[in-house]
Each structure stands twice: as structure tokens, then as C-alpha cells.
Amino acid sequence: MVIKAGNEVHTNQPGPLKRNILWVRHGTTLWNVEKKYLGHTDIGLLPNAKEELAPLHEQLSGVSWHEVYCSDLLRCRQTLEQILPDASGKVKFDSRLRENDFGQWEGLTYDQLKDNPVYRSWIDAPQEVTPPGGESWQEFTGRLDSFLQEMLLEGRPSMHVDEGRESTIVVVTHGGVIRYALSRLIAGLGFWDTHVVPGQVIQVQLDQQGNQWFGSRVTFPPIGL
Fold it and tell me: One of 67, 81, 99, 135 is an active-site residue; which one?
């Protein structure tokens, strides 16, 4: 599956020259371990979440963030509590950051679905086939494009930073959301080109040139931290 990257996003408002987006995938759930499809089903993290996410908590403790967004699903809320406890009361929960809704396939594995002809068609062409009772590709990408444009790319007053004209945004969300977002923000990157495991951070730097933003992936945490 190939998704065209939307590396040129237009904005009519002034903004900082650089924005750093820290994309955080939530910690591990039981369904992740069991390799079950997990979309809108609202289950929490494993009991060892604090230990699993402790390294990420330490890495983020030195980050000066300006805004924090989080999926409203429990596994992301619990992740946020562990990695950025100081964000309580300041975070913006947004249902647009939810994983794709897999409908009747939620809680099932590949082995349970591999002989289903609709599932096979969805694997081959997810843009054209929708999981029964689930979310279409157009619905999934539409809400994410709306979030990217409104929350990350437009020049809102709360995002203006005088010193260095650079701001940092933390987004706690899901694997599919991160894959799609990176494919939109980084030229030439496809949906499946990004591998992100539970509890991982991927940093994208957005550079503004005129009325366009150009994204690139940078190392996180920075060398030396």
C-alpha cells in the first residue's frame, strides 16, 4: 500500500520557523501481546506499564513542550500519566487521534481472519474495502488530516515562541495514526515505511519555508541525553 506524502501544507497565518512534533505510541496492552486487532476497543495497559514506560518518562523529563495532545482512549491516557505527569490539566484530548476502527475484526488475529475473503481484500486494498462495522480509510485519514492541519500546521497564537521561533508538541496516540501522520509530513515516506513499537517516540521536525511546511525525521532522544 502506497500513500502519497503531503509534504507541502499551506497556511495563511504566520508561525514559528520550526516545530518539533514528538509522536508517542502508547504502551503495551494485552491485545498487542496477543497480536489482536485493536482499534476503538478501550482497554488499558499491562500491569507493568510504569516499568515499561520509565525510560520514556526520563527522556521526556528534559523536554520543554508547549502543547500536548492525546487520544481519548484509555491506553493513551494511561501512557500520558506515566510519561508526562506534569501535563495533567494542560493536555488536549482529541478523539481524532484514535486508532482506526476495525469493527467486527476487533479482538481477532490474522490467523483467525486470513481465510475471510473480505479481510483478504482489505489487506490488498484498504483504501477501497472497509472492515464490517468499522471505519473506512477515507474516514480515518480525513479526521487525521483535519487534526494535522488545525492543531499542528496552522499558526495559532498559543504556538508562537519568541526565542528561537521554535516550539515542541507532544502527541500521544496509536501506531496507525503515527504511520499515517509521518507519511503526510515527510516527502516520499509511505504508510508502511514507519515501524513504531509500543512506548516509542518518533520526532519529526517541521521547517517553514514561505507558506509551506517541510518535515524530516530526527533522532530522539538527541545524542548525549
Answer: 99
